[in-house]
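Hey, quick one: can you model this chain's 3D structure?
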Amino acid sequence: MSHRVTPPVKLFALALAAIVAAGCQNMSAREEGTAKGAAVGAVAGAVIGGATGHSMGKGALIGGAVGAVAGNLWSKRMEEKRAALEKATQGTDIAVARTANNELKVNVPSDFSFSVGRSDVKPKMKPVLDEFARGLDPAMQVRVVGHTDSSGSDAINNPLSVRRAEAVRDYIAAKGVNPTHVVTEGHGAREPVADNASVAGRAQNRRVEIFLSEPAANSGA
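Sure thing. Here's the predicted structure for all 221 residues.
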């Protein structure tokens, strides 16, 4: 048997959405995720409560509490690490971003990462890796993906991209990051971010991407 959502529930949902949208403008990423999760949970709780003849307000409170936990997927630790890396890479072409699935991504192009045909970590990248490794929670997971430009064959590029990822892993392991929590991948020239026909494009493609995530159980800390 289907239940029709009553007008008060619709009004409640619209009002709550407007409040959250306005409030999120001044929130941190973590706070915004929590607020949005709470809002979704509150609306869902209100809808269920209203549709089943129970208290809309009580349903909203319960749903909001559950939603807040589910929405809080970006912890204080992750936000602090993002801010520290943004500061350390300010004025460079290194990109620091939060991904759609709540990983911290650091994209390091060739100016800071690797020369053509090489897998040794450039001195310019070491301060960035030092900051990445500094104070890292042992439970956090790291994924390092190496890339090449299209120069050379797959037989050369694929193992080279793996060596680049492994070089980053070895460096941060020496700085205290648990190597058993670091996954390395080499994607060769298969995922270009720029045109390989130009020198500048090949330099962008010759890069390493470092992803940081933490277990869901620790995400609210």
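One thing worth noting: The radius of gyration is 23 Å.
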